[in-house]
Design goal:
Layout (H helix, E strand, L loop, with lengths): L1 H8 L5 E4 L6 H8 L7 E8 L2 E8 L3 E2 L1 H8 L5 E2 L2 H7 L19 E4 L7 E5 L5 E6 H8 L2 E3 L2 E2 L1
Parallel strand pairs: 3-6, 6-9
Antiparallel strand pairs: 1-8, 2-3, 2-5, 4-10, 7-8
């Protein structure tokens, strides 16, 4: 799997967990027994300049207006399922890991995640999760940080 190879190539320590199948980020939080604020949820957007990976806490929603402002792109929309399948060919649809650099995508992080020491996220499978230090995640993603989430 691309994610695990990528993390190992970058010497990132992580814990891999198996759990019952989950199909939402909040479901992942429940399965992993962590707060939704500690689960990094990916939301892929497309604008005039291409795709970007937005990462926010599981218990929040993406604010497209703020995302467009941060990207300097007036026409930002959610990526379609067809586009997602093309971008993340090694992943089950809806289980994409929130590490845009694995797939050549810029990453945008909601500033609220800065408070977390660890992040939990999907690996590309609905039955797997990884936990890693947020600082390590930031190091490999090089995210743009801003306020893109809303309750």
């Amino acid at each position: 799997m691309l994610l695990e190879m990528f993390l190992e190539e970058h010497n990132i320590d992580y814990e891999k967990h198996l759990h019952r199948a989950t199909f939402t980020a909040q479901g992942l939080a429940a399965a992993e027994h962590v707060s939704g604020y500690e689960v990094a949820k990916p939301v892929v957007v497309r604008g005039e300049n291409g795709f970007a990976m937005c990462v926010l806490p599981a218990c929040t929603r993406l604010d497209l207006t703020k995302t467009a402002e941060l990207l300097g792109d007036a026409h930002v929309r959610l990526a379609s399922e067809v586009e997602m399948a093309e971008l993340f060919g090694d992943c089950e649809l809806g289980a994409e890991p929130p590490i845009g650099s694995v797939y050549g995508l810029p990453t945008i992080m909601d500033e609220s995640l800065s408070a977390d020491e660890y992040l939990t996220m999907q690996t590309g499978r609905h039955t797997e999760a990884i936990k890693l230090r947020r600082e390590d995640w930031e190091r490999v993603c090089g995210p743009i940080i801003g306020r893109i989430a809303r309750a």
